Amino acid sequence: MKVSFKYLTQTVLLILPLSLALAQQPTVQERVVALKASLAASQAILKQYEWVETTIVSLKGDEKSRKQERCYYGADGKVQKVLLSQTAPPPKKRGPFRRKIAEAKQEELTDYMKEAVALVKLYMPPQPTLIQRAKDAGKVSLSPQPGQQARLVFADYLKSRDSLTLAVDLASNRPVAAKVFTYLDSQKEPVTLDVRFGTLNNNATYAATTVLDAKGKDLRVTVENAGYRPM
Q: Residue-wise over 193-225: b if at least 16 C-beta within 10 A, else e?
């Protein structure tokens, strides 16, 4: 069968851009390096800022506590917090026996709430060292997404059988959203985190809203960061 030169030329011209595009797609290693650099740059900038963190704890859809704290990085590089306000619903009136049972349950739940809030801090912001550890272990997958984004999935990111999924903007290498599947003490207590990132005028990225859901306990913890301003 004869194939015309014109047909071959058109075919090559159609295939060539696709081949070049595929060849130019960053590898997992390149994408991880760029992401780590973006996260490190943002953290360096944020250390010059202060902001207000609002933590809302809800149980079975009812708000149980709301706390606002002024946050900033101390000389040791750790986040320092100053309490601005804190509210909690008034205790219900009960008899002595029922009150003791309620107090015991409340103490157990309070401990669980504290653990849940602490868990959020372990995953957000994403840590470049943990990202690299997952990469070195071969536990990172990369897939393109619509809207000039890519999805990076880090398995066993912090704990065994957990995962951190980051939606990354391809132009800036900044994360725009995150999804975490994890647990507290046991894998029988699954917990999810949904994160939306914000960006300051200088392009620094921060976790604007983090929502933790522990469906087994009907518990939700929402952490909002806002009001960023230079120190």
A: bebebeebeeebbbbeebbbbbeebebbbbbbb
Closest CA to 72 of 53, 87, 86: 53
Question: Distances in Å between the alpha carbon of 58 and those of 55, 118, 211?
Answer: 10, 16, 11
- Is 21-230 assigned to CATH 3.90.210? no
Q: For the segment 133-191, what is each residue's pLDDT rounded down to a tens digit?
A: 999 999 999 998 888 899 999 999 999 999 999 999 999 999 999 999 999 888 888 99
Asked whether the beta carbons of 227 and 69 are under 8 A apart, the reply is no
Residue type, 220: R
Instruction: Classify residue 174 as left (phi > 0), alpha (psi -120 to 50) or beta.
Output: beta
pTM here? 0.78
Residue spans of the domains in the chain: they are 21-230
Instruction: Specify the DSSP class assigned to residue 27.
Output: P
- Over the range 148-163, which residues count as b (16 or more CB within 10 Å of their CB) and which as e? ebbebbbbebbeeebb
